[in-house]
Amino acid sequence: MTKIRGYTCSCCGEYHEELPTSYGNPAPVYYYYVEPDEQEDRFELDDDLCIMDNEHYFIRGCIEIPIIGMDEHLIWGAWVSLSEDNFNKTKELWDKQELLEPMLGWLSTDLPCYPDTVNLKARVHPRPDGIRPYFELEPTDHPLAVEFRDGVTIERVQEIAEQFCLKRDNETKE
């Protein structure tokens, strides 16, 4: 298998020593729909769990997409909604996640580089030892689900990195 090397970015023209293969989201998408001065009152949010309005429950985990021909994955840190019962079981057994069965959830993260990803159906696979859960996407024709199932090329990983670079450059200019 090949190891990922650096790349010259078509966005900024610079050579980057490493090609990013992991991106995260600090909160479910709904957090950003709420006015900043209301967020603290409406959300209980930590690094792994979130409750919105005492009635919507979320867990943070990873969508791991194989990079074709590599020993690595493109990892999207994302949030999935859970039922109240599954959320409470998860919270209660957080340090013993190997005891939990996979659970149904709905993706609650708007991932850039894809059409709308909110509410894609996912199965949450808890992992032991405090490792964030693994999210398995339902097999559909959505581009994220297709990449999850079939993997991505290293060129696609670079394209995603360049889209983030372009986004970052545009935000700095504003």
What does this protein structure show overall?
By secondary structure, the chain is of the alpha+beta class. The chain has one domain. Helices cover 25% and strands 28% of the residues. It is built from four helices and ten strands. It has helices spanning 36-42, 84-92, 143-150, 154-173, and strands at residues 7-8, 15-16, 22-23, 43-45, 49-52, 56-66, 73-82, 103-107, 121-125, 134-137. Strands 3, 4, 5, 6, 7, 8, 9 and 10 form an eight-stranded mixed beta sheet that branches. β4 (43-45) and β5 (49-52) form a beta hairpin. The radius of gyration is 17 Å and the shape is globular. The termini are far apart. The model is unreliable at 169-174 (pLDDT under 50). Pfam families: DUF2199. InterPro entries: DUF2199.
The biggest beta sheet, please?
8 strands, mixed
In percent, how much strand structure appears in the residues? Answer: 25-35%
Question: How many β-strand runs?
Answer: 10
Rg over CA atoms, rounded to whole Å, is: 17 Å
In quaternary terms, these chains amount to single chain
Which key features would you list for this structure?
two-stranded antiparallel ribbon; alpha+beta; 28% strand; single chain; 4 helices
Reconstruct the topology from this structure.
Layout: E1 7-8, E2 15-16, E3 22-23, H1 36-42, E4 43-45, E5 49-52, E6 56-66, E7 73-82, H2 84-92, E8 103-107, E9 121-125, E10 134-137, H3 143-150, H4 154-173
Parallel strand pairs: 3-7
Antiparallel strand pairs: 1-2, 4-5, 5-6, 6-7, 7-8, 8-9, 9-10
